Amino acid sequence: MFAFIEVAYNVIAPIFICIGLAALVGRRYNPDPRAISSLIIYLFSPFLVFDGISRSDLQAGEIGQITAMVMLISLAMAVVGWGLARLLKLDRRTTSAFMLTVMLINAGNYGIPLNRFAFGEAGEQRALIFYVMSAVVANTFGVFLASRGTASVRESLINVFKVPLPYAMALGFSVNVANITLPLPVERAALLLGQAAVPAMLALLGLQLARVSVRGRITPILTAAGARLVIAPLLAFLFAALLGLQGLVRQVCIIESSMSTAVMSNVLATEFNSDGEFTAAVILVSTLASIITLSTLLLIV
């Protein structure tokens, strides 16, 4: 029990302090979360991804393992989300939001600092690669799903190509592989903008949680949160064994795969007119419940 409390206090509590302070600001001053979400999608996150990849010194093998884990867990949870939504007989708009909350992982604003506090700088570096790959899923398939709540297939596909993160990832890999040295002002600007991403995401999460209500669709909300926090970790252990993951890569991949629902699910649902209220409610429930599930997982791995 003492070890459990120590993990929750030292690793998870600092994150929730940041989220809680942002929630207090949200309650008091009611700032517009959409302004922050736009900065995250179109400015901070792309530079976080670009800077992290361009500077990364991880071996190709580790990057490949992390990428494989992200793709497997995302695909599996998308199928799980679709199946559960069918069982619950949700409408098209809510099904889209339900799948987003089950599939998209809070690997950035929650996962990166969690792995930094738990495993140090080496854990943070691997968590960043996991986040990058999961962000690519969110900014492609996630955008498509969010758009499909109300838009046609053609409009959904067009929206996928409007977000900059996949291009930032490709550019970062190009700079890394070609060993290009960026001009110092450009390098420092990219670093500063990238460093703003995680605090902005934590602030956004706090602002969103400050205005969430779970009244109403409690069964689908609890089902989505349960799938994210219970089914995903079980699949993560299975996929880690199948991929032969070892050591720190295994620890980070399992923890990242087991994170609560991504803030990006609400950002995308809001941006593309899916069910934003539902995604925000699942974020609230899964984030609070993750204090217990993640503290337990950190002790296990």
Overall helicity: over 70%
Label the structural class.
Answer: mainly alpha
The strand count comes to 0
How far apart the termini lie comes to 16 Å
Total domain modules: 1
Q: What's the CATH topology name?
A: Na+/H+ antiporter like fold
Which CATH first-tier class would you pick?
A: Mainly Alpha
Radius of gyration: 18 Å
Low-confidence stretches: none
Sequence of secondary-structure elements: HHHHHHHHHHHHH
- What is the CATH architecture annotation? Up-down Bundle
Shape: globular
What does this protein look like?
The chain is mostly helical and 301 residues long. It has a single domain (2-300), classed as Na+/H+ antiporter like fold. 82% of the residues lie in helices and 0% in strands. The chain contains 13 helices and no strands. It has helices at residues 2-29, 33-55, 60-88, 92-103, 111-148, 153-160, 165-177, 184-195, 197-209, 218-243, 247-257, 263-271, 276-300. The radius of gyration is 18 Å and the shape is globular. It starts with a helix and ends with a helix. The mean pLDDT is 85.
What's a concise summary of this model?
This protein has 301 residues and is mainly alpha-helical. The protein is built from 13 helices and no strands.
Write the layout of secondary structure elements.
Blueprint: H1 2-29, H2 33-55, H3 60-88, H4 92-103, H5 111-148, H6 153-160, H7 165-177, H8 184-195, H9 197-209, H10 218-243, H11 247-257, H12 263-271, H13 276-300
Helix pairs in contact: 1-5, 1-9, 1-13, 2-7, 2-8, 2-9, 3-4, 3-5, 3-10, 4-5, 4-10, 4-13, 5-6, 5-11, 5-12, 10-11, 10-13, 12-13
